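TICKET: design request
STATUS: open
ATTACHED STRUCTURE:
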């Protein structure tokens, strides 16, 4: 469970600052499919910190918000690696999530325009527990660790029962 201290911190932050995603969307990643139907886990760092971007799924933005650069980079990689993949023209990854792709950030909230502002406040322990549960209970899971932060977080993933994909990115290519 999420610690009371973390929830108090986020509540206080919301009183003083704009915090993303909105409260009702912080746990969107839990509502897209049954946990037992998860096939792929994509780990991100923290939510997008611009207006109307974050909605509880890492790397995703709702229509009509244009895809941020990190998602454009993901689409570029997919189009180069997967024959027939075409850019969908939007950044909404809810379709992926409904098909069993868990889009999880390590940190689930962020102050507007301040990336990593809620880092080391307790979210990491919560999401580490989620990853640990997945690691223990789901076999054949594919973990996609996109970006240096996610790759560090993936150090505890069981490589015997799970497939770990952490692409090395060329210089200037960030997620």
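STATUS: resolved
RESOLUTION: sequence designed for all positions
ATTACHED SEQUENCE:
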């Amino acid at each position: 469970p999420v610690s009371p201290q973390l929830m108090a911190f986020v509540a206080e932050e919301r009183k003083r600052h704009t915090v993303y995603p909105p409260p009702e969307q912080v746990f969107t990643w839990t509502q897209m499919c049954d946990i037992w139907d998860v096939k792929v886990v994509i780990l991100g760092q923290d939510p997008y910190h611009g207006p109307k971007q974050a909605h509880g799924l890492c790397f995703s933005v709702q229509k009509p918000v244009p895809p941020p650069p990190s998602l454009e980079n993901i689409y570029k990689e997919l189009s180069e690696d997967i024959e027939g993949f075409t850019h969908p023209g939007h950044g909404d990854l809810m379709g992926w999530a409904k098909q069993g792709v868990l889009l999880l950030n390590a940190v689930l909230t962020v102050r507007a325009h301040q990336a990593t502002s809620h880092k080391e406040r307790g979210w990491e322990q919560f999401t580490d527990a989620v990853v640990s549960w997945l690691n223990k209970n789901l076999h054949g899971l594919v973990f996609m660790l996109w970006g240096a932060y996610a790759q560090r977080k993936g150090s505890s993933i069981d490589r015997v029962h799970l497939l770990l994909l952490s692409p090395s990115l060329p210089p200037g290519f960030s997620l």
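CLOSING REMARK: Confidence is low (pLDDT under 50) at residues 169-173. The longest strand covers residues 40-44.
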